[in-house]
Specification:
By secondary structure, this protein is of the alpha/beta class. Helix content is 36%, strand content 25%. The chain is built from eight helices and seven strands. The protein starts with a helix and ends in a 7-residue tail after the last helix. This is DUF4410 domain-containing protein.
Amino acid sequence: MKKIKLLCFAILLVSQLGFSQKKKIAVVTFYANKMVGFDELGIGSELLLKEVLNLRDDPNFNLTPLLEQYHSNFFNTYSKELPFDLLPENEVLDNPSYQAFEPKFDLSKFQARDYLMYNKYKYIYEGLGGQANEVAVAKLFADKADGVLFVNIDFALEKGFGIGGTATVKMRATTRMALYNKSGAKVFAFSESERSKKTSVMVGGIPVMSPEKILPMCESALTELMGDLSKRIAKITKKSEMKL
């Protein structure tokens, strides 16, 4: 009788351990958008668009350190607040099927200049009209993960204070995270953002778009965004495991 009780206890313990294991998630894209947005300024001039494109192509507009910092914080800090575990990056990036994967809405040579990818990640579009990618990449990792996560950051100019010749602008940093289960169905998608403390000025109604002015604002905005992002992520995603 004692042996039977011990056996039952052992089976129960193994069962509970099995149920307590966290789900596994594969991060399948991680990038920064180099096209600085300006919709919130209410300015739609060709001159401003040209300035934004010139900034994107300027080698001094180097977002790599910012992307690396965000990546480090995401995997070393923010991931600990998620109700699931992340697959090691090498299991994703070195996966032959991932390397051979050709997403729909893949980037043309021109569009590729808009995005800065981290390491060997692919640009994989998700969101409105992106179901083909969401389903395909989820199935690609269905034998290893319970879902796939898309992560990106972007930057956009907004009005600061003042009017006319004294007007200033600020930068807003935004991160989007979107999780899909192994069937490609959306579990959650959310964006979090913060404005920079640093500002720049407008000259003739157009923001000064030099890397020396814009980069510090991007860095300031990202610093503000990362300030309490762990708490925000934990609050938003705490029930997501039940949907996987």
